[in-house]
Design a protein that fits this description.
- The chain is mostly helical.
- The chain is elongated.
Length: 73
């Protein structure tokens, strides 16, 4: 699998887990599923950074999103 796709999936998982965390905290529940999602997101991002030749910088992330969207369109 392409490291750009792995990075984008990891970032999207992390972003989409934020509402789940906020919902669980506001209802007084433990954010168990959101915590596992954040861990999975972190693992995917770290794997993509370590597998990509030269790694990724913050400036590379928008370009990765564009490349992934262009790949599927």
């Amino acid at each position: 699998m392409d490291t750009d796709i792995i990075l984008v999936i990891g970032v999207l998982l992390g972003v989409f887990s934020i509402p789940s965390i906020l919902s669980a905290i506001s209802e007084g529940r433990a954010p168990r599923v959101a915590a596992f999602t954040i861990i999975a997101s972190g693992v995917l991002i770290l794997y993509a950074i370590n597998s990509h030749p030269g790694g990724y910088t913050l400036e590379d992330v928008p370009g990765a999103f564009v490349r992934v969207v262009a790949k599927f369109l």
